[in-house]
Amino acid sequence: MYDSFLKYMGKSWEKPKYRSKRKLPYVPLETELDQLIGGTSKTISTFLQVLKETGGRLGEIARIRWEDIDFKRKVISINYPEKGSDPRQVKVSSKLLAMLDNIPRKRKTVFANKLQMSNQFYKQRKRLIRKLENPNLGRIGFHSFRHWHGTMLYHKTKNLVYVQERLGHRNIKNTRLYVKLVCFEGDEYHSATAKTVEEACKLVDTGFEYVCDIDDVKLFRKRK
Known about the structure:
The protein is 45% helix and 13% strand. By secondary structure, the protein is of the alpha+beta class. It has two domains: 30-179, Orthogonal Bundle (hpI Integrase, Chain A); 189-223, no CATH class.
C-alpha cells in the first residue's frame, strides 16, 4: 500500500532489506513428550501421539478423517497436507490405533479444528506443568513433536531423502536442519529383553530398536 501511495504522490523510495535469523528449534526428550501424552485428556493425548508417530503438522493432523485410517494395515494417510507438501502415508503402532479406536466418532474428522485443539492443549499443558513441577514442558508445542520425530528418524535411518518424504518438505534444505539438531554421542538408553515374538512386537511398537541376541534372548534399546 505504501508503494501505491508514493506512486500516487509522484515519489519513490528504496525498500529496506531484512534478513531473518533462523534459530535452531527445541527438540524435547521423549520422556517429556510422553509426560504430555500421559497427562492430558483422552482426545488430546491421542492427538499428541499421532503427532509423535507421524511427524505431521498441526493442521494436517487436525484434518485427518476416519476414512484416512487403515486399522488393518496400521497406516494413517495424510491426505490434506500443508505448505504445498505431497500426501503421504505413515505406518503407526498398535498402541496408537487402540487410542484412536477409543475416540467417539462424532464427525467426519477424527479431531476438532486446530484452534480448538490448540486451546485445549495449552490449558492442559499449563495444569500439567504445575502438577509435575516441570517448567520445561512449557517449551513444547505441537511443532516440537515434529522436530523430535524428524531428528530421531534421521538418526535411525541416516537417509535425508526418506526424512524429507516423511515430513513432506518441498525443499531438502529444510530437512537438513534435523541433521544438526541433536548430538547423540554418549546417549543413555532404556534396555529391554524379549523371549517371544509377541514380546518383541510390543517393544517395537513402543519405539525400541533391536540390538542383538544373547543366550536366546533378544536385546532391545530405546533412548531416554
